TrEMBL record:
Taxonomic path: Bacteria, Pseudomonadati, Pseudomonadota, Alphaproteobacteria, Sphingomonadales
InterPro entries (UniProt xref): ADH-like_C (IPR013149), ADH-like_N (IPR013154), ADH_Zn_CS (IPR002328), ER (IPR020843), GroES-like_sf (IPR011032), NAD(P)-bd_dom_sf (IPR036291), Zn_alcohol_dh (IPR050129)
Signal peptide, first to last residue: none
Gene3D superfamilies the UniProt entry points to: Medium-chain alcohol dehydrogenases, catalytic domain (3.90.180.10), NAD(P)-binding Rossmann-like Domain (3.40.50.720)
Family listed: Belongs to the zinc-containing alcohol dehydrogenase family.
Organism: Sphingomonas spermidinifaciens
Domain of life: Bacteria
PROSITE patterns according to UniProt: ADH_ZINC
SUPFAM superfamilies tied to this protein: GroES-like, NAD(P)-binding Rossmann-fold domains
Keyword Oxidoreductase in annotation: yes
Name by which UniProt lists this protein: Alcohol dehydrogenase
Length: 349
């Protein structure tokens, strides 16, 4: 099959590789039809990482079932499916409690099978495949990993109706966080340096959208009657964290919650925070990682239902589509979002 393999320089090379086979009776094979590029992928772009050389990357995807094992009852060949890539080992305490996003072997497990979106075919256990309604496209579904990350963060936050919410970052994660907060009855202020991202945030319901020249601390004080935000979502992550995380702690009110949605790079990250003020204000810092189940419900299935019912929008976020053969151009376009107007980019196969 055709696949995009990471090179030593951190770009991609289109190669022919062995097609995956079903390793168990309850596994499914699907042909990938759409795959997304997210902020996590971009943090590896043009970065030399020997451990990822020749790997197939990508974790946001939708496709069509082409083969099922004899024990599969959930889907059948020909089904259009959303494919969840958050796959734990299945044996540890966290996986047994359906908290598989916390599995100690999460990344090695998922990268060995279902977290390989930048290829023609992928295999995974049947519970990771969700049948798409006819009116939800493959490219729409490729956004649902992102939205599930947002939903998990909102569940952890305890956000409720009429909360005053601040969101830092208006990429796909921040915009998904915005839509969920508004659907839950919150008032939302969002911050992003990119003008077209702020404009889309306003179209999606943001009460206030601020840029780099705005005084965000004065704006949040006015927005909240001087208290600060009940909940702040840090959705930028990566290299911006040394600036955005301290800002987030200044935007949240006393007794409020700060949810870390944007990702950190591997290894130690030194960021100075006003810990005395955080402690004396009893501000709660909540790390949020991927998604799994909320009570009885898989969060991936929940966002699929929200999109199917029109409660979350997708079309407005999808700005570019590229064939897999042009994956390097797609990543360059995503990286240069200030110039290209990129929000969410789909690879179509």
């Amino acid at each position: 099959m055709k696949a995009a393999l990471k090179t030593a320089e951190g770009t991609f090379s289109i190669e022919e590789v062995e097609e995956p086979s079903l390793p168990a009776d309850d596994w499914v094979k699907a042909r990938i039809r759409a795959a997304g590029i997210c902020g996590t992928d971009l943090r590896h772009w043009r970065k030399a990482e020997e451990e990822l050389r020749c790997c197939i990357m990508g974790h946001e995807m939708a496709g069509e079932v082409v083969e099922v094992g004899p024990a599969v009852t959930r889907v059948k060949p020909g089904d259009r499916v959303l494919i969840e890539s958050v796959l734990g080992c299945g044996h540890c305490e966290w996986c047994r409690a359906r908290q598989y996003n916390r599995c100690p072997d999460l990344y090695p497990t998922r990268r060995a099978s279902v977290s390989r979106a930048y290829a023609e075919f992928v295999v995974g256990p049947q519970q990771k495949f969700y049948v798409l309604p006819d009116h939800v496209g493959f490219d729409d579904a490729a956004l649902l990993d992102t939205f599930a990350v947002c939903l998990h963060a909102q569940h952890l936050s305890g956000l409720t109706i009429n909360d005053k919410v601040a969101i830092i970052g208006a990429g796909p994660i921040g915009l998904g966080q915005l839509m969920l907060a508004k659907a839950s009855g919150a008032d939302v202020l969002i911050i992003d340096p990119v003008a077209h991202s702020r404009e889309l945030a306003r179209e999606l319901g943001a009460d206030i959208a601020l840029g780099p020249d705005d005084d965000s601390e004065a704006a949040i004080a006015k927005f909240t009657g001087g208290r600060g935000a009940d909940v702040v979502f840090e959705c930028a992550g990566g290299p911006s964290m040394p600036d955005t995380l301290p800002l987030a702690t200044r935007l949240v009110r006393r007794g409020g919650k700060l949810v870390l949605v944007g990702g950190f790079d591997e290894g130690a990250t030194v960021i100075g925070l006003e810990w005395q003020r955080i402690q004396m204000s009893e501000i709660t810092l909540i790390p949020s990682a991927s998604f799994a189940f909320h009570d009885l419900y898989p969060e991936q299935a929940q966002v699929l239902e929200l999109v199917a019912k029109g409660k979350l929008k997708t079309r407005e976020l999808i700005t570019h589509r590229f064939p897999l053969d042009e994956i390097n151009q797609a990543f360059d376009t995503a990286q240069a979002k200030q110039e290209t107007g990129a929000i969410f980019i789909c690879l179509l196969m």
